[in-house]
Design a protein that fits this description.
single chain; extended; transcription regulation
Length: 136
């Protein structure tokens, strides 16, 4: 609660709010929109998963980057880490209510991207052709 009061005090003092470089929300936004943060949040929308399941599902992520991303998202309160007492311990990850709230808009964005991918690729190709013409 103290952090929220500090954030509210800070925000009321800033003319530019979230656009200011010192805004605490920027750090969380960096975690959510990082290269792997987006994929972790979307992957966990369906069900809780263990580390190796996430690693196998999110192609291209290294163990180091996945661990760092999960650590940041857990610290931000978007992902919960659950340890089952067993030998060896079973650790799983799932979305918190905050994480679910974040993953919903991301899922809509990805749906929009999927639905408009053809038009986007067409625009990129047209741009690249125009740039080639200018470069000649």
């Amino acid at each position: 609660m103290e952090e929220w009061v500090q954030f509210a005090d800070w925000q009321s003092q800033q003319a530019s709010g979230v656009f200011h470089t010192d805004c605490p929300a920027r750090t969380v936004l960096d975690h959510v929109t990082s290269r792997w943060g987006v994929w972790v949040l979307i992957a966990l929308r369906e069900e809780d998963q263990r580390f190796f399941e996430l690693r196998e599902r999110i192609l291209g992520v290294s163990e180091k980057m996945l661990a760092q991303t999960l650590r940041n998202l857990v610290r931000d309160g978007l992902v919960r880490r659950t340890v089952e007492p067993s030998t060896p311990p079973k650790v799983s990850y799932g979305l918190t209510p905050l994480g679910r709230g974040t993953s919903e808009p991301l899922a809509h964005l990805f749906g929009w991207l999927r639905d408009n991918a053809r038009d986007i690729l067409t625009q990129q190709a047209a741009y690249d052709r125009a740039e080639e013409t200018v470069a000649r």
